[in-house]
Amino acid sequence: MPLLNTTDVMVLGAGAAGMICAVEAGRRGRSVTVIDHARAPGEKIRISGGGRCNFTNLYCGPANFLSGNRHFAISALRSFTQHDFIDRVKAHGIAFHEKTLGQLFCDGSAREIVAMLTGEMAEAGVRLELATQITGVNRSEAGFEIRTESGDWLADRLVVATGGKSVPKMGATGIGYDIARQFGHPVTETRAGLVPFTWASNMHESWGALSGVSLEVHAACNGAGFDEAMLFTHRGLSGPAMLQVSSYWREGDTVTIDLAPGIDVGAYLKAERGARPKASVWTVLTDLLPKRLALQLDTRTGPVPPRIADMSNADLDEVVAAIRAFEVVPGGTEGYRTAEVTLGGVDTDAIHQKTMESRLVPGLHFVGEVLDVTGHLGGHNFQWAWSSGVAAGRAA
Ligand code: FDA
Predict the structure, then answer these.
(1) 269: domain CATH number?
(2) Among 21, 103, 248, 349, which one is most buried in terms of CB atoms within 10 A?
């Protein structure tokens, strides 16, 4: 098929990173085309944050990211910060609030962020081609050739913004990784991140019965720890604390959970031993823990003296240890079906950190989640999309 269309910059993917990149390049006077196979742009923005989009985090910084190269994100995060994005949101009159831990959400709807970006694209003269299947990309002396079911394109620059593999139902595919490999780019192992855990078979029946119980915990795994809420579900453990540690978890690893962080459980139990000697230790613990959980812990640690008064300090210390370090070896995770992000991706060693341009193929850029840069929960992943997208848009 002859090459029908030309464009200075071709952006593959009309998600967060692709759209902001297109705006930036378009504002520089480049002719920009964005292609997506979805029927609407920014679908993940629309559903994010329960429909309110946690679009950035006041405290976002390099420490909030996992990557094979922990220095890679620094430059882009500094060049286009959370405050730059917040200014933009304010300029569009979008009302927002801080929910917790610096997490900024729209007061109204995530659709306002999508509308902001599509409006800016229109103003910058960006052409948006939706419902378009990409059938292949190639590089010739003329530039990048992009083949689609509805026609072929020739571009000076190609920006891959096709995201990760998370939530295939929302249009996620691994095409970005395939394109990277095709051009000789290493891709680090990819796996589901920010994802609920599933029970191992030995815990499923008893602990699954706690479905609906939630509490504030400190959860730790492989050197990372988070103070947030945890939720028991029928399938396993969820809630922000579990999603956060899931990004650090590998099959077979133990997740250690402090069920009463910041509370001196030992001192409390010892005081109650004097105050209500006839109560069982687990009844006393229902003051500190959700009742169903306290009673379940009782079953788990086996027979205990019936009255707290009959328990020695060593007995109480054992109970405290069980609460301070509740250990779970999850059976697995719910995988890409429900994961918020994909860990791993295009290896950043072969990418220029200021421009997101390939060190191997001039004119080829990768932005957003397709790269091996993954944020913590709380708006960091969108901030990475904005920062990396702008970095590429200023150069492409
Ligand atoms: P993104 O996935 O947004 O965009 C990729 C685009 O490429 C999509 O439009 C897709 O259709 C297109 N595409 C893929 N394959 C294609 C192909 N073969 N052909 C053509 N087009 C193709 N983060 C955060 O910071 N705050 C939050 O509140 C949330 N909430 C949240 C909720 C849920 C349910 C999920 C799944 C994820 C989040 N996230 C989040 C994570 C956040 O959505 C994610 O990190 C960014 O959307 C990544 O932006 P990208 O532009 O890189 O990819």
Answers:
(1) 2.40.30.10
(2) 21
